[in-house]
Protein backbone atom coordinates (compact mmCIF):
# COMPACT_ATOMS: atom_id res chain seq x y z
CA UNK A 1 0.00 0.00 0.00
CA UNK A 2 2.90 2.37 0.64
CA UNK A 3 3.60 2.38 -3.10
CA UNK A 4 0.23 4.08 -3.62
CA UNK A 5 1.26 6.96 -1.39
CA UNK A 6 4.69 7.38 -2.92
CA UNK A 7 3.62 7.32 -6.56
CA UNK A 8 3.29 10.55 -8.53
CA UNK A 9 -0.10 12.21 -8.62
CA UNK A 10 -2.05 11.64 -11.82
CA UNK A 11 -3.86 14.52 -13.48
CA UNK A 12 -6.64 13.81 -15.94
CA UNK A 13 -6.74 16.90 -18.11
CA UNK A 14 -7.62 18.33 -21.50
CA UNK A 15 -5.15 20.82 -22.92
CA UNK A 16 -7.76 23.52 -23.47
CA UNK A 17 -9.94 22.93 -20.42
CA UNK A 18 -9.92 26.10 -18.27
CA UNK A 19 -10.51 24.12 -15.11
CA UNK A 20 -7.69 21.69 -15.89
CA UNK A 21 -5.38 24.63 -16.59
CA UNK A 22 -6.09 26.16 -13.16
CA UNK A 23 -4.93 22.94 -11.51
CA UNK A 24 -1.88 22.67 -13.79
CA UNK A 25 -0.84 26.16 -12.68
CA UNK A 26 -1.22 25.22 -9.01
CA UNK A 27 0.83 22.05 -9.45
CA UNK A 28 3.53 24.04 -11.28
CA UNK A 29 3.64 26.79 -8.65
CA UNK A 30 4.03 24.23 -5.90
CA UNK A 31 6.63 22.22 -7.80
CA UNK A 32 4.55 19.04 -7.71
CA UNK A 33 5.49 16.61 -10.44
CA UNK A 34 2.66 14.58 -11.86
CA UNK A 35 1.69 12.17 -14.59
CA UNK A 36 -0.47 13.78 -17.30
CA UNK A 37 -3.30 11.66 -18.66
CA UNK A 38 -5.17 13.35 -21.48
CA UNK A 39 -8.93 13.11 -21.76
CA UNK A 40 -10.11 14.23 -25.19
CA UNK A 41 -13.39 16.01 -24.60
CA UNK A 42 -14.32 16.07 -28.28
CA UNK A 43 -13.13 12.86 -29.93
CA UNK A 44 -15.55 9.97 -30.32
CA UNK A 45 -18.30 11.68 -28.34
CA UNK A 46 -15.89 12.71 -25.61
CA UNK A 47 -13.64 10.42 -23.59
CA UNK A 48 -14.99 11.97 -20.38
CA UNK A 49 -18.17 9.93 -20.99
CA UNK A 50 -16.35 6.58 -21.19
CA UNK A 51 -17.14 3.92 -18.60
CA UNK A 52 -13.59 4.08 -17.24
CA UNK A 53 -13.62 7.79 -16.76
CA UNK A 54 -17.15 7.80 -15.32
CA UNK A 55 -15.92 5.41 -12.64
CA UNK A 56 -13.21 7.90 -11.80
CA UNK A 57 -15.46 10.96 -11.91
CA UNK A 58 -19.23 10.43 -12.09
CA UNK A 59 -19.59 14.09 -13.02
CA UNK A 60 -17.84 13.23 -16.33
CA UNK A 61 -15.59 16.28 -16.28
CA UNK A 62 -11.95 17.21 -16.14
CA UNK A 63 -9.86 17.85 -14.20
CA UNK A 64 -9.55 14.88 -11.88
CA UNK A 65 -6.47 14.48 -9.69
CA UNK A 66 -5.50 11.14 -8.20
CA UNK A 67 -3.30 12.00 -5.23
CA UNK A 68 -2.40 10.34 -1.95
CA UNK A 69 -4.71 7.47 -2.76
CA UNK A 70 -7.75 9.63 -3.43
CA UNK A 71 -9.46 11.01 -6.50
CA UNK A 72 -10.32 14.68 -6.30
CA UNK A 73 -12.41 16.63 -8.79
CA UNK A 74 -13.66 20.23 -9.11
CA UNK A 75 -10.72 22.53 -9.78
CA UNK A 76 -11.26 24.86 -6.80
CA UNK A 77 -11.62 21.93 -4.40
CA UNK A 78 -8.41 20.42 -5.78
CA UNK A 79 -6.54 23.72 -5.49
CA UNK A 80 -7.73 24.30 -1.92
CA UNK A 81 -6.56 20.80 -1.00
CA UNK A 82 -3.17 21.32 -2.63
CA UNK A 83 -2.78 24.64 -0.85
CA UNK A 84 -3.31 22.97 2.52
CA UNK A 85 -1.12 19.93 1.95
CA UNK A 86 1.64 21.65 -0.03
CA UNK A 87 2.02 25.07 1.53
CA UNK A 88 4.88 26.35 -0.61
CA UNK A 89 3.74 29.38 -2.65
CA UNK A 90 0.49 29.76 -0.73
CA UNK A 91 -2.43 30.50 -3.02
CA UNK A 92 -4.80 31.69 -0.32
CA UNK A 93 -4.01 34.33 2.31
CA UNK A 94 -4.24 33.38 5.96
CA UNK A 95 -6.21 36.48 6.95
CA UNK A 96 -9.93 35.62 6.66
CA UNK A 97 -10.89 38.90 4.98
CA UNK A 98 -8.07 38.75 2.44
CA UNK A 99 -8.92 35.10 1.82
CA UNK A 100 -12.54 36.11 1.27
CA UNK A 101 -11.45 38.68 -1.31
CA UNK A 102 -9.50 36.03 -3.18
CA UNK A 103 -12.46 33.65 -3.06
CA UNK A 104 -14.81 36.38 -4.26
CA UNK A 105 -12.72 37.07 -7.34
CA UNK A 106 -12.13 33.37 -8.00
CA UNK A 107 -15.83 32.60 -7.75
CA UNK A 108 -16.77 35.61 -9.88
CA UNK A 109 -14.99 33.67 -12.61
CA UNK A 110 -15.48 30.04 -11.59
CA UNK A 111 -19.19 30.32 -10.77
CA UNK A 112 -20.40 33.36 -12.71
CA UNK A 113 -18.55 33.09 -16.03
CA UNK A 114 -16.83 29.81 -16.85
CA UNK A 115 -19.76 27.42 -16.28
CA UNK A 116 -22.02 29.32 -18.64
CA UNK A 117 -19.51 29.09 -21.51
CA UNK A 118 -18.32 25.59 -20.64
CA UNK A 119 -18.16 23.00 -23.43
CA UNK A 120 -21.37 21.16 -22.48
CA UNK A 121 -23.37 24.37 -22.61
CA UNK A 122 -21.84 25.40 -25.94
CA UNK A 123 -22.72 21.98 -27.37
CA UNK A 124 -26.31 22.37 -26.18
CA UNK A 125 -26.60 25.90 -27.55
CA UNK A 126 -25.36 24.60 -30.90
CA UNK A 127 -22.77 25.49 -33.50
CA UNK A 128 -24.69 28.42 -34.96
CA UNK A 129 -25.12 30.29 -31.71
CA UNK A 130 -22.16 29.24 -29.58
CA UNK A 131 -19.77 31.97 -30.72
CA UNK A 132 -22.25 34.71 -29.84
CA UNK A 133 -23.14 32.94 -26.60
CA UNK A 134 -19.56 32.61 -25.42
CA UNK A 135 -18.69 36.19 -26.32
CA UNK A 136 -21.79 37.53 -24.59
CA UNK A 137 -21.30 35.75 -21.28
CA UNK A 138 -17.60 36.40 -20.97
CA UNK A 139 -18.06 40.08 -21.86
CA UNK A 140 -20.86 40.39 -19.32
CA UNK A 141 -18.82 38.69 -16.62
CA UNK A 142 -15.70 40.69 -17.36
CA UNK A 143 -17.64 43.95 -17.13
CA UNK A 144 -18.39 43.32 -13.47
CA UNK A 145 -15.01 41.71 -12.83
CA UNK A 146 -13.11 44.76 -14.13
CA UNK A 147 -14.90 46.90 -11.52
CA UNK A 148 -14.40 44.33 -8.77
CA UNK A 149 -10.68 44.07 -9.49
CA UNK A 150 -10.30 47.84 -9.22
CA UNK A 151 -11.00 47.37 -5.49
CA UNK A 152 -8.71 44.38 -4.93
CA UNK A 153 -5.85 44.39 -7.42
CA UNK A 154 -2.23 45.13 -6.79
CA UNK A 155 0.30 43.50 -9.07
CA UNK A 156 -2.15 40.63 -9.46
CA UNK A 157 -5.86 40.08 -8.84
CA UNK A 158 -5.68 40.52 -5.09
CA UNK A 159 -2.66 42.38 -3.83
CA UNK A 160 0.82 41.50 -4.97
CA UNK A 161 0.96 37.73 -4.57
CA UNK A 162 -0.35 35.10 -6.95
CA UNK A 163 -3.58 33.61 -5.57
CA UNK A 164 -6.36 31.25 -6.65
CA UNK A 165 -8.02 34.29 -8.26
CA UNK A 166 -5.13 34.55 -10.71
CA UNK A 167 -5.33 30.85 -11.53
CA UNK A 168 -8.93 31.45 -12.57
CA UNK A 169 -8.25 34.68 -14.47
CA UNK A 170 -5.66 33.58 -17.02
CA UNK A 171 -7.62 30.64 -18.47
CA UNK A 172 -10.71 32.84 -18.66
CA UNK A 173 -8.83 35.52 -20.62
CA UNK A 174 -7.58 32.79 -22.97
CA UNK A 175 -11.22 31.86 -23.57
CA UNK A 176 -12.16 35.51 -23.99
CA UNK A 177 -9.65 35.74 -26.82
CA UNK A 178 -11.01 32.55 -28.39
CA UNK A 179 -14.48 34.11 -28.39
CA UNK A 180 -13.17 37.45 -29.71
CA UNK A 181 -14.16 39.46 -26.67
CA UNK A 182 -12.97 43.05 -27.02
CA UNK A 183 -10.27 43.05 -24.35
CA UNK A 184 -9.66 46.78 -24.89
CA UNK A 185 -12.76 47.25 -22.72
CA UNK A 186 -10.94 45.55 -19.83
CA UNK A 187 -7.58 47.26 -19.27
CA UNK A 188 -7.14 46.09 -15.68
CA UNK A 189 -7.92 42.44 -16.49
CA UNK A 190 -5.54 42.73 -19.45
CA UNK A 191 -2.75 44.24 -17.36
CA UNK A 192 -3.00 41.59 -14.68
CA UNK A 193 -3.24 38.81 -17.26
CA UNK A 194 -0.13 40.05 -19.01
CA UNK A 195 1.83 40.13 -15.74
CA UNK A 196 0.73 36.60 -14.87
CA UNK A 197 1.57 35.23 -18.31
CA UNK A 198 5.20 36.23 -17.72
CA UNK A 199 5.45 33.73 -14.88
CA UNK A 200 6.93 30.33 -15.62
CA UNK A 201 4.15 28.36 -13.95
CA UNK A 202 1.55 29.95 -16.21
CA UNK A 203 3.66 29.22 -19.27
CA UNK A 204 4.50 25.60 -18.66
CA UNK A 205 0.85 24.91 -17.87
CA UNK A 206 -0.42 26.74 -20.98
CA UNK A 207 -2.68 24.78 -23.38
CA UNK A 208 -0.02 25.04 -26.10
CA UNK A 209 2.49 23.17 -23.97
CA UNK A 210 0.64 20.04 -22.90
CA UNK A 211 1.17 16.47 -24.11
CA UNK A 212 -2.21 16.60 -25.86
CA UNK A 213 -1.79 20.03 -27.46
CA UNK A 214 -2.62 19.74 -31.18
CA UNK A 215 0.85 20.49 -32.56
CA UNK A 216 2.30 17.45 -30.82
CA UNK B 1 -14.82 58.77 14.35
CA UNK B 2 -14.21 55.23 15.51
CA UNK B 3 -17.00 52.83 14.71
CA UNK B 4 -16.80 49.39 16.24
CA UNK B 5 -18.20 47.40 13.35
CA UNK B 6 -18.39 44.33 15.52
CA UNK B 7 -21.25 45.92 17.42
CA UNK B 8 -23.28 46.55 14.30
CA UNK B 9 -25.54 43.82 13.03
CA UNK B 10 -24.48 42.37 9.71
CA UNK B 11 -26.67 43.37 6.78
CA UNK B 12 -27.67 40.75 4.23
CA UNK B 13 -28.84 41.87 0.81
CA UNK B 14 -30.99 38.99 -0.38
CA UNK B 15 -33.88 37.92 -2.59
CA UNK B 16 -36.28 35.42 -1.05
CA UNK B 17 -35.97 32.96 -3.90
CA UNK B 18 -32.28 33.39 -4.73
CA UNK B 19 -30.49 30.05 -4.20
CA UNK B 20 -27.23 31.76 -3.37
CA UNK B 21 -28.87 34.08 -0.85
CA UNK B 22 -30.58 31.09 0.77
CA UNK B 23 -27.25 29.31 1.24
CA UNK B 24 -25.96 32.28 3.22
CA UNK B 25 -29.20 32.57 5.20
CA UNK B 26 -28.79 28.94 6.28
CA UNK B 27 -25.20 29.57 7.38
CA UNK B 28 -26.20 32.64 9.40
CA UNK B 29 -29.03 30.66 11.03
CA UNK B 30 -26.81 27.69 11.86
CA UNK B 31 -24.28 29.97 13.48
CA UNK B 32 -26.88 31.98 15.34
CA UNK B 33 -25.81 35.25 13.74
CA UNK B 34 -28.56 37.87 13.80
CA UNK B 35 -28.67 40.19 10.84
CA UNK B 36 -30.69 42.87 9.15
CA UNK B 37 -32.46 41.64 6.00
CA UNK B 38 -32.50 44.06 3.07
CA UNK B 39 -34.50 42.72 0.14
CA UNK B 40 -33.31 43.21 -3.42
CA UNK B 41 -36.08 42.49 -5.89
CA UNK B 42 -34.41 40.84 -8.85
CA UNK B 43 -37.45 41.17 -11.11
CA UNK B 44 -39.25 44.42 -10.33
CA UNK B 45 -38.50 47.49 -12.43
CA UNK B 46 -35.75 45.76 -14.39
CA UNK B 47 -34.18 44.36 -11.25
CA UNK B 48 -33.05 46.33 -8.20
CA UNK B 49 -29.67 44.59 -8.40
CA UNK B 50 -28.90 46.86 -11.37
CA UNK B 51 -29.57 50.10 -9.47
CA UNK B 52 -26.72 52.56 -8.98
CA UNK B 53 -26.83 52.07 -5.21
CA UNK B 54 -26.58 48.33 -5.41
CA UNK B 55 -23.93 48.42 -8.11
CA UNK B 56 -21.78 50.47 -5.76
CA UNK B 57 -22.17 47.75 -3.17
CA UNK B 58 -21.61 44.85 -5.58
CA UNK B 59 -20.30 45.63 -9.06
CA UNK B 60 -21.25 42.09 -10.06
CA UNK B 61 -24.91 43.14 -9.62
CA UNK B 62 -25.91 39.99 -7.81
CA UNK B 63 -27.21 38.82 -4.48
CA UNK B 64 -26.25 37.88 -1.87
CA UNK B 65 -24.06 40.61 -0.45
CA UNK B 66 -23.19 40.63 3.24
CA UNK B 67 -21.98 43.75 5.00
CA UNK B 68 -20.13 42.50 8.06
CA UNK B 69 -17.34 43.79 10.29
CA UNK B 70 -17.01 46.87 8.12
CA UNK B 71 -16.62 44.97 4.83
CA UNK B 72 -18.89 43.98 2.00
CA UNK B 73 -18.60 40.35 0.94
CA UNK B 74 -20.22 38.76 -2.10
CA UNK B 75 -20.26 35.27 -3.68
CA UNK B 76 -22.13 32.88 -1.43
CA UNK B 77 -19.33 30.34 -1.02
CA UNK B 78 -16.79 33.05 -0.20
CA UNK B 79 -19.20 34.48 2.38
CA UNK B 80 -19.84 31.06 3.91
CA UNK B 81 -16.12 30.24 4.11
CA UNK B 82 -15.51 33.58 5.84
CA UNK B 83 -18.34 32.99 8.32
CA UNK B 84 -17.03 29.51 9.06
CA UNK B 85 -13.63 30.91 9.97
CA UNK B 86 -14.80 33.85 12.05
CA UNK B 87 -17.79 32.16 13.70
CA UNK B 88 -16.69 28.59 14.34
CA UNK B 89 -19.86 27.36 16.06
CA UNK B 90 -21.46 24.59 13.97
CA UNK B 91 -18.48 24.22 11.65
CA UNK B 92 -19.52 23.86 8.03
CA UNK B 93 -16.21 22.58 6.76
CA UNK B 94 -14.24 19.66 8.21
CA UNK B 95 -10.72 20.30 9.46
CA UNK B 96 -9.24 17.25 7.74
CA UNK B 97 -8.05 18.36 4.28
CA UNK B 98 -9.44 15.31 2.47
CA UNK B 99 -12.85 15.52 4.13
CA UNK B 100 -12.88 19.24 3.44
CA UNK B 101 -12.06 18.51 -0.20
CA UNK B 102 -15.01 16.11 -0.39
CA UNK B 103 -17.31 18.80 0.95
CA UNK B 104 -15.94 21.33 -1.52
CA UNK B 105 -16.31 18.86 -4.38
CA UNK B 106 -20.01 18.33 -3.67
CA UNK B 107 -20.61 22.04 -3.03
CA UNK B 108 -18.92 23.00 -6.30
CA UNK B 109 -20.71 20.25 -8.22
CA UNK B 110 -23.79 22.31 -7.43
CA UNK B 111 -22.45 25.86 -7.17
CA UNK B 112 -20.29 25.73 -10.31
CA UNK B 113 -21.81 22.95 -12.43
CA UNK B 114 -25.56 23.41 -11.95
CA UNK B 115 -26.78 26.65 -10.37
CA UNK B 116 -24.99 29.14 -12.65
CA UNK B 117 -26.42 27.60 -15.80
CA UNK B 118 -29.99 27.94 -14.55
CA UNK B 119 -29.45 31.26 -12.80
CA UNK B 120 -31.92 34.08 -13.46
CA UNK B 121 -29.72 36.02 -15.89
CA UNK B 122 -29.28 32.96 -18.09
CA UNK B 123 -32.99 32.14 -18.00
CA UNK B 124 -33.77 35.72 -19.03
CA UNK B 125 -31.34 35.44 -21.95
CA UNK B 126 -32.71 32.07 -23.04
CA UNK B 127 -36.19 33.59 -23.02
CA UNK B 128 -39.62 32.77 -21.66
CA UNK B 129 -40.43 30.11 -24.25
CA UNK B 130 -37.37 28.00 -23.62
CA UNK B 131 -36.45 28.66 -20.00
CA UNK B 132 -38.60 25.91 -18.46
CA UNK B 133 -37.00 23.27 -20.66
CA UNK B 134 -33.57 24.79 -20.13
CA UNK B 135 -33.82 24.79 -16.35
CA UNK B 136 -35.20 21.27 -16.20
CA UNK B 137 -32.50 19.96 -18.54
CA UNK B 138 -29.52 21.40 -16.69
CA UNK B 139 -30.69 20.50 -13.21
CA UNK B 140 -31.55 16.95 -14.30
CA UNK B 141 -28.16 16.59 -15.96
CA UNK B 142 -26.34 17.91 -12.93
CA UNK B 143 -28.33 15.80 -10.49
CA UNK B 144 -27.57 12.65 -12.50
CA UNK B 145 -23.87 13.00 -11.76
CA UNK B 146 -24.47 14.35 -8.26
CA UNK B 147 -26.57 11.32 -7.28
CA UNK B 148 -23.63 9.07 -8.14
CA UNK B 149 -21.12 11.34 -6.41
CA UNK B 150 -23.17 11.43 -3.22
CA UNK B 151 -23.29 7.64 -3.11
CA UNK B 152 -19.55 7.82 -2.32
CA UNK B 153 -19.74 10.60 0.29
CA UNK B 154 -23.13 10.64 1.98
CA UNK B 155 -23.97 9.65 5.51
CA UNK B 156 -26.94 11.30 7.11
CA UNK B 157 -26.18 14.34 4.97
CA UNK B 158 -24.17 15.05 1.83
CA UNK B 159 -20.79 14.28 3.36
CA UNK B 160 -20.91 12.14 6.47
CA UNK B 161 -23.23 12.91 9.31
CA UNK B 162 -22.69 16.61 9.92
CA UNK B 163 -24.21 19.52 8.07
CA UNK B 164 -21.63 21.05 5.74
CA UNK B 165 -21.42 23.67 2.97
CA UNK B 166 -22.46 20.90 0.57
CA UNK B 167 -25.84 20.68 2.29
CA UNK B 168 -26.29 24.45 2.14
CA UNK B 169 -25.92 24.16 -1.63
CA UNK B 170 -28.13 21.09 -2.01
CA UNK B 171 -31.40 22.24 -0.47
CA UNK B 172 -31.83 25.41 -2.56
CA UNK B 173 -30.96 23.42 -5.67
CA UNK B 174 -33.64 20.82 -4.92
CA UNK B 175 -36.11 23.66 -4.40
CA UNK B 176 -35.24 24.86 -7.88
CA UNK B 177 -35.47 21.33 -9.24
CA UNK B 178 -39.05 21.20 -8.02
CA UNK B 179 -39.80 24.59 -9.57
CA UNK B 180 -38.57 23.25 -12.89
CA UNK B 181 -40.49 19.98 -12.50
CA UNK B 182 -37.42 17.76 -12.45
CA UNK B 183 -38.44 14.16 -11.80
CA UNK B 184 -37.00 13.76 -8.33
CA UNK B 185 -37.95 10.06 -8.29
CA UNK B 186 -34.78 9.58 -10.37
CA UNK B 187 -32.71 10.91 -7.46
CA UNK B 188 -33.56 8.96 -4.31
CA UNK B 189 -30.35 9.78 -2.45
CA UNK B 190 -30.58 13.51 -3.15
CA UNK B 191 -34.25 13.34 -2.09
CA UNK B 192 -33.48 11.50 1.12
CA UNK B 193 -30.73 13.90 2.13
CA UNK B 194 -32.84 16.92 1.20
CA UNK B 195 -35.72 15.66 3.31
CA UNK B 196 -33.47 15.16 6.33
CA UNK B 197 -32.04 18.67 5.97
CA UNK B 198 -35.45 20.28 5.57
CA UNK B 199 -36.34 19.02 9.04
CA UNK B 200 -33.67 21.23 10.57
CA UNK B 201 -34.71 24.59 11.95
CA UNK B 202 -31.97 26.57 10.19
CA UNK B 203 -33.17 25.34 6.81
CA UNK B 204 -36.76 26.21 7.66
CA UNK B 205 -36.30 29.71 9.01
CA UNK B 206 -34.14 30.55 5.99
CA UNK B 207 -36.65 29.08 3.51
CA UNK B 208 -37.88 31.37 0.70
CA UNK B 209 -41.42 31.20 2.10
CA UNK B 210 -40.30 32.72 5.39
CA UNK B 211 -38.42 35.85 4.35
CA UNK B 212 -39.52 39.47 4.71
CA UNK B 213 -39.85 39.70 0.93
CA UNK B 214 -41.71 36.41 0.42
CA UNK B 215 -44.81 37.09 -1.72
CA UNK B 216 -47.44 36.27 0.91
CA UNK B 217 -46.18 39.05 3.17
TrEMBL record, chain A:
Lineage: superkingdom: Eukaryota
Enzyme Commission identifier(s): 5.2.1.2
Source species of the chain: Limulus polyphemus (Atlantic horseshoe crab)
NCBIfam families referenced in this protein's UniProt entry, alphabetically: maiA
Cofactor: glutathione
Family statement drawn from the similarity comment of this UniProt entry: Belongs to the GST superfamily. Zeta family.
Keyword Manganese: no
Keyword Transferase on entry: no
Keywords (A to Z) from UniProt: Phenylalanine catabolism, Tyrosine catabolism
SUPFAM superfamilies in alphabetical order: GST C-terminal domain-like, Thioredoxin-like
InterPro entries hit by this protein: Glutathione-S-Trfase_C-like, Glutathione-S-Trfase_C_sf, Glutathione_S-Trfase, Glutathione_S-Trfase_N, GST_C, GST_Zeta, GST_Zeta_C, GST_Zeta_N
Signal sequence annotation: none
Catalysed reaction equations from the record: 4-maleylacetoacetate = 4-fumarylacetoacetate
Location of the GST N-terminal domain: 7-90
Upper taxonomic lineage: Eukaryota, Metazoa, Ecdysozoa, Arthropoda, Chelicerata
Protein name: maleylacetoacetate isomerase
Domain GST C-terminal: 95-215
Pathway(s): Amino-acid degradation; L-phenylalanine degradation; acetoacetate and fumarate from L-phenylalanine: step 5/6
Gene designation per UniProt: LOC106471206
From TrEMBL, chain B:
Cofactor: glutathione
Pathway of action: Amino-acid degradation; L-phenylalanine degradation; acetoacetate and fumarate from L-phenylalanine: step 5/6
Domain GST N-terminal: 8-91
InterPro entries to which the protein is assigned, alphabetical: Glutathione-S-Trfase_C-like, Glutathione-S-Trfase_C_sf, Glutathione_S-Trfase, Glutathione_S-Trfase_N, GST_C, GST_Zeta, GST_Zeta_C, GST_Zeta_N
Enzyme superclass (EC): isomerase
Gene3D superfamilies with a match to the protein in the record: 1.20.1050.10, Glutaredoxin (3.40.30.10)
Protein's UniProt name: maleylacetoacetate isomerase
Domain of life from the UniProt record: Eukaryota
